[in-house]
Amino acid sequence: ETGVTQTPRHLVMGMTNKKSLKCEQHLGHNAMYWYKQSAKKPLELMFVYNFKEQTENNSVPSRFSPECPNSSHLFLHLHTLQPEDSALYLCASTRENTIYFGEGSWLTVV
Amino acid sequence: RKEVEQDPGPFNVPEGATVAFNCTYSNSASQSFFWYRQDCRKEPKLLMSVYSSGNEDGRFTAQLNRASQYISLLIRDSKLSDSATYLCVVNIKNTDKLIFGTGTRLQVFP
Hints:
Number of helices of chain A: 0
Oligomer: heterodimer
Low-confidence stretches of chain A: none
Helix content of chain A: under 10%
Radius of gyration of chain A: 13 Å
Structural class of chain A: mainly beta
Number of helices of chain B: 0
Distance between the termini of chain B: 37 Å
Mean pLDDT of chain A: 91
Radius of gyration of chain B: 13 Å
């Protein structure tokens, strides 16, 4: 247990659906991340928030919309996704540049 | 050129063998380095940080060569339980960016 919790763990959604992934940590970490991991590809950094402010947006399509209401919670809102967006979405938080991951949300877009 | 490059493997080694992985990075502003381990269908977990002078943790030794921009991981006396994917991670100075390599897959056989 790293203290980073993600829900849901598994999600199947249609291309016209709207859903959200949730992440929370009560470790006192200031930075939170969304990464995408597809088969046979490296983890792709999507977004970074530091003290609730977005500090990195790695050219992510607008169908992915992050929200960080406070330093402990991070959301990824999903809308009109494509089948190629099916992947493992990992949330993480950092302390002194050491990154701690949640268990991930397995997303399948049908 | 990828920011962080690793040989994807797989490296198939017998129990008790010594195996080494390298990772090269392209951004000279990289300041912190880590090795993570990822088991199949699980989230990555920190294995060890990599310090400038090199560091050891039991059977694992990590080294950094800033001049040639690579880090290495040496595993001695391989165990079956070492079978996993080993990810190289680089932090870019003055940013929140943590960049992952594709990972090197290790399979230890009896």
